[in-house]
Structure formats: structure tokens, C-alpha cells
Amino acid sequence: MALGSRCLFLLLLGILESLALGDPGPLEDVVIDRYYIPKICLREAQMGDFIRYHYNGTFKDGKKFDSSYDRGATVAGVVGVGRLITGMDRGLQGMCVNERRHLIVPPHLGYGSIGVAGLIPPDATLYFDVVMLDIWNKNDKLQITTLSKPERCNRTVENSDFVRYHYNGTLLDGTPFDSSYSKGSTYDTYVGTGWLIKGMDQGLLGMCAGEKRSIIVPPFLAYGEKGYGTVIPPQASLVFSVLLVDFHNPKDGVFLEHLEVPESCKRRAVTGDFVRYHYNGTLMDGTLFDSSYSRNQTYNTYIGKGYIIPGMDQGLQGVCVGEQRRVVIPPHLAYGEEGAGKYKIPGSAVLIFDVHIIDFHNPADPVEIETVFRPEGCNVTTRNRDFVRYHYNCSLLDGTRLFSSHDYEKPQEVTLGANKVIEGLNTGLLDMCAGERRVLIVPPHLGHGESGARGVPGSAVLRFEVELISMEEGVPEGYFFIWHGEPPANLYEQMDLNKDGGIPADEFSSFIKSQVEQGKGRLMPSSDPEKVIADMFRNQDRNQDGKITPDELKLKSDEDQEKIHEEL
After folding, report:
1. Does residue 387 have an active-site annotation?
2. Global pTM?
3. Which of 6, 239, 260, 509 is deepest in the core (most CB within 10 A)?
4. Amino acid 7: pLDDT
5. Which residues belong to any copy of the EF-hand domain (predicted)?
6. Whether 481 is catalytic
């Protein structure tokens, strides 16, 4: 297109020269050759518009008489109001930004019969090569075009908000003058407080985080007649392509969005509670900076005690177990102007946490006991030292299944109060009847503590569903066997069945079993009575020679009395 226009211009010039040979009279009007017209022309220069342009001025023989390029500065002025030579005034009207024209200006539309002393002779025809760089009018307004906008936009920029945005800045002809992307960081500032040029102050209003805009700023809302250094000429319109990354107001508090709240919420977290939760942490533009899921481990902390950023301390107040909540935190309640390099959080960044509460407890919590079913006529209940058989299902509060006695052939068996199960479960099994069913909520300090156990996370609250199958009355701590009445006065003689002065293991076992069968005493309840009797024998066979002598045989009550005398 440019080459064809150039040929047309040369042809035109040739015709004019031929005409001059036959008719030496001057041209009637300026000759315009639009040898480059941009595909997109949003605006044409009209009478009264302010314009900026570059040009080269030559005579017919090609000799240059003037050039804006040589001066290193564009020409700015108003077109069509007599401030330019008439030929130029006419030749520049209707031009688009980035359009290029050849103009032939006859003398009577240039400097006439007088010329310009020392520069342009009288009656000179002038040739101009012009490129239009900028067009604006004093009645122009800010031109804002929304390029893209998030579907979700709960809030838009207002005056006094602090914004973080990326931008590319160009002149109207596309010449770049600045870019935040090249600096590797957003431009951060307050809106509507005079820290920006007026056009940007206005152009950012009403934007959503994540929105992209094109903002065309006329010079009187930008840098005006002075321009800015060497990069922005005087009277230059500016084009900004803006991506709003995030924004907040210094008066903002934490914003909460309840994504999912369980129907049953018996308790809500308060200051001093210890919370276990999963989270994804993102910036307002969606950039992920941290996630507990990626570590496959919950974040565990006290709330309201300053162990976490203030915004999260506030944002976790009142959560329910199982709740999913979005917490939006302004920078003054997060990592402030400095940001957090460890997490790649920029300074003054708004943070969004999508949180899932796994469980929480308070260090003062007892075991929570809910009786699901209790048989009628329940007169005998479990006590410490009793031997019990029970079924159980154990899970986390989020429903994660951990263990179940139903996975085995028989119920769980344990002597209560013998430190064989976690304290919370032991407490929850007390005062139960055979056939009773309960739900127990066991806080970690009565469970597996901060360290957890195999298959149990640290600081986890446990939920047990328990059913007591059977119970056997126990014996006091330290006893293997107790008498229901007074023990025989001649105990050793009755044990020594063959009267040989020594009691071997078989004689001891036979005697104990006979006492149990006759109802005179009972063994410590156990799933293995033989082992209990064997332990009793080893306890009495002081020198471990395989038999009990009269000196070795002692009742537990006698042993305890001897210890008291020794201490005294």
C-alpha cells in the first residue's frame, strides 16, 4: 500500500511538472498524498483539535529547509485555526494517528511572495512528509475500555483505596514509555489522593481485582505542556493497559465468606482454642502462595493468641468443625508493606485463605460423653480395675475412619484404670452398663497428644462409638486375687497338698482354682486366668527356685504392712 501510494505521488509530481511547462501558474490548492493509512483509525484530526506530529520539509529539488526530527522534538499545536500556514492547516485535517502524508503546498498557501528570510525564498512550493502522532481536544474525556472482567466482583475501587496494578504505558502512536512488567513488580499507590496523574486517578475507579482496562488519558489529565522527562513529550495523550492485581482500604477489616457450614454446629471456636485446619492461600489475582494440602498436613495452632497473622486470628473465630470458610485479609492485618519473601507474598498484598476446619479443642476440655442407649434396670456399672469387653469405632471429627474392633474376631478387652488405653477412652468407659452404647469426644490431651500415634495425627480430637459387651468385677490395684471373706488361718498347710513342706506351681494353681470355684475368692479378671495364677506364683516364689516355702508365702495385706513399718 505504501509503495503504490509513493508511485502515485511521483506520478502526480510528474503531471504537475508537465503542466508547469505549459502553464507556469501556481497550484490552486494543497496536494495531499495519503501514502500510509493505518487499518484502525479511531479518530481523525478536526478543526480545533490539538495535534502532535513529526515532519520533514523540503523544496522541489529535495533540499531540506526544516525538520522536527532534526530538532528532536515533535510539533504540537491546534489545527485549522490559523496558527499554521494555510497549506499545513488544510493538509493535516482528516489525518489519523500514525497516518503518513505527502503534502505539496503552493506558495500562496505557504509563505507567499515574501518567504522567510534566509530560509524559504519567495514564491516557493513546499513539500512536507508528515506523520501524525497524537490528536486530542480540550473537550475530550477519559476513554476507558474494559478488556476483561472477572465473573465475580464483590467490590470495586473507590477513592482512598490502595491499589496494586500492572501496566504498559504507550503514547497514542504506540511508542512505549514505561511498563511495570519490565520492573518485575506492581505499581502500588493510593487512588484519589493526588499521588497519580488525574487521568489514572479517574481511570482506576470502579475496577475489580483481576479486571483489565485500556485507559486513554488526554494531556490535560496527564503531564500537559511540560511532559515528563525525555519519555513523555509535552501535550502527549497517554494509553495505559492496566491489570488490577488487588486493592484494599486502610480501614478494611477481615472479610468472611461462609462457603459451607455444617447443619449441626454444637460449638464454635473462641480465643484460646487449638484449631487444626487445611487451607489454600492465594493472592487476589488467584496466584497460589501456600497450601497445607501440598504438605498433606493440617496447620495446627491456637487462635487469638498472636501465633498467626492478626487477620487469621480474627478470621478463625467462631468456626465450626467441618466448616469451609473464605478469609480475605488486608495487608495491614497480614504481612504489611514488607510482604513475606518466604511465601512469595508481595508487599501490601491482600491475602485470601480458603479454610477447611478439621477439628478444634481447648486444653481445659474434658471428655464429652453422649449416651446413645442405656438398658433398663442398669444397676451394676463399670469402675476402675474392672475387666471389660467392648466394641468401638474410632474416627477423626471430619469422619476419617481410623480403627474399629469390628475388624477383628472378638471385642477389645482391657482392665480399666490400668493405663492400657488412652485416658479419655478409659474415662468414657466408666459407669457403663453391659449393653450400653456411647459416643465419646476425646481431646488430644486425653488422647494421643501433640505427637499423635500410628495412624493418628498430632493434636487430633478423636470420636469413639463404644458398646460395652460385658464386664467382670475387678480387684484392687496391685492384687492378683482377693478373698471374699477372711483367708484360712492355716493357709500354707491347705496349699501344701502333699505335705512335703514346699508348694510347687501345680499345687498352687490347683488350690487357687478350688477357692475360685468354691466362691471363697476371685482372680483379677483377665482373658487368660492361667497367666494370672502363674504371675501370682512367681510373685510368691521369692528366690525363684520353683516352690514356695512357709517363709516366702505372704498375703498382700501383710506385705503392705511390712512396707509401712520399714518406712517408719
Report:
1. no
2. 0.76
3. 239
4. 42
5. 490-518, 528-563
6. no
